Amino acid sequence: MMMNFKNLDEFWAFYVSQHSKAATRRLHFLGTLSGLLCLLSSLYSGRWIILLLAPIIGYSLAWYSHFFIEGNVPTTFGHPFWSFLCDLKMFALMLSGRMDKEIKRLGKRPLL
Predict the structure, then answer these.
(1) pLDDT tens across 46-96, in order?
(2) Domain-by-domain residue ranges, the chain?
(3) Using CB atoms within 10 A of its CB, is residue 49 exposed (0-12), middle (13-18) or buried (19+)?
(4) 10, 16, 61, 70: which could join 31 in a potential S-S bond, CB 3.0 to 4.6 Å?
(5) Which regions span the lipid bilayer (predicted)?
């Protein structure tokens, strides 16, 4: 089912609801971190083939978490660009220790 969102903020609230379990968010964090490390490694070494690993590792971890932990369909399937932006936002919030506060702000309790 394709849902329509008016803006990125509206989609963000939906995105957070689809990442209700801490294990899902942690695997997304690891996937994003791995993708960024592949990018940096590729830039540093000049081996552009490493870039191919970034989406493979990142999406594999994220999709695994949706199918086997969260029990829902990845938002990437319906909204790839907004999902990517929200993943980066979630990564930054987790890195800074502010994701739980954001979940509470949106009225969703973090599940441990």
Answers:
(1) 999 999 999 999 999 999 999 999 999 999 999 999 999 999 999 999 999
(2) 20-105
(3) exposed
(4) 61
(5) 27-44, 49-69
The pTM of the whole model exceeds 0.85: yes
Q: What's the start-to-end Cα distance of the chain, in Å? A: 28
Mean pLDDT, the chain, rounded, equals 92
**Distance between CA atoms of residues 61 and 76, nearest Å:** 13
Nearest to 26 by CA among 111, 94, 109: 94
